Amino acid sequence: MENKRLFQRILFSHDATLQVGEQKLTTQVLDLSLHGFLCTQPQGSNFDTEQLIILVLKLDDQHSITINAKLVHCQNQTLGLETNHIDIDSISELKRLVELNLGSDELLHRELIKLAR
């Protein structure tokens, strides 16, 4: 299968919380980009494509990333989430994570240009 991704994915294994309405579910982020996340599907959960989900990724006691996302695919016990909205503090944290993992200012700059389109 051809990889059609515009944004570079970063392998990143970290616990997170999915909020769907009043329900909070624990998940594991598997990879991330400036445009979305891939995470594990919580056991016993059932989601619909296009469903709106809030992902909260707590990095430490003072830093977290909160993203309003849309479920774009659910397969092989994983959820693909596309970012719909992210606040300024969260995008700053996400940018920092991507920057540290890409290891190149030029690659990060290209990613930010793609995000702005």
How is the largest sheet built, in terms of strand order? Answer: 1-2-3-6-5-4
Total helix count? Answer: 2
At the fold tier of CATH, the topology name is Thrombin, subunit H
Beta-strand fraction estimate: over 45%
Name of the CATH class: Mainly Beta
What count of structural domains? 1
Proportion of residues in helical segments: 10-25%
The gross shape turns out to be globular
Explained architecture:
The protein has 117 residues and is α+β, with helices and mostly antiparallel strands. The protein has a single domain, classed as Beta Barrel (Thrombin, subunit H), CATH 2.40.10.220. It is 23% helix and 46% strand. The protein has two helices and six strands. The protein is globular, with a radius of gyration of 14 Å.
In brief, what are we looking at here?
With 117 residues, the chain is α+β, with helices and mostly antiparallel strands. The chain has helices spanning 88-102, 105-116; strands at residues 10-20, 23-32, 36-40, 52-58, 64-75, 78-86.
